Amino acid sequence: MLQTDQHPFKYDTSVNEKKKKSFWLAMAQCKCPVCTEGDMFKTKATNLKKFNELQENCEVCGFRFMPEPGFYQISLFFTYAISVAIFLVFGTATYYLLNNPPLWVYYVAVFTPSIIATPWNLRYSKVVMLYVFGGVWRSDE
What's the CA gap between 97 and 123, in Å, rounded? Predict the structure, then answer.
């Protein structure tokens, strides 16, 4: 296993080589980008108190999920983009399906799905950040 004083990118790459999941499946399941088996988050997204807490290390291969301090701050841009997409989709659907209803209907139609999607939005923003900018996914697979 990984010691706390080791570099974050020193991990056991030989773990489960034959059972590696695909890039997209591992991302969808919020799994470790190295071994695709260990969970990135401590709890499920439905735990509203701790849905966004990352594991320190992968329990399977020892990969550190926090490569450097502040690494996930940029994931807020992904969160913002997903929120804007939710606003546009539900706002446009409300306009066309309800024939330009009063303003309060737009508020309900836009903010309700946005608030409900918040745990998944924040989690997947971190997953995308680690997979795309973490520099650990190997291109040979």
Answer: 31
The more confident residue out of 119 and 1 is: 119
Backbone angles phi, psi at 32, to 5 degrees: -60, 135
Closest CA to 80 of 40, 28, 30, 118: 118
CA gap 114, 84 in Å, rounded: 9
Long-range (24+ apart) CB contacts under 8 A made by 7-12 are 8/63, 8/64, 8/66, 8/67, 8/68, 9/67, 9/135, 9/136, 11/58, 11/61, 11/62, 11/63, 11/64, 12/61, 12/62
pTM to 2 decimal places: 0.74
Q: How far is C-alpha 140 from the chain's CA centre?
A: 23
DSSP 13-71: TTTTGGGPPPHHHHHHTTB-TTTS-SBSBSS-TT-TTTTTPBPSB-TTT--BS-SSTTG
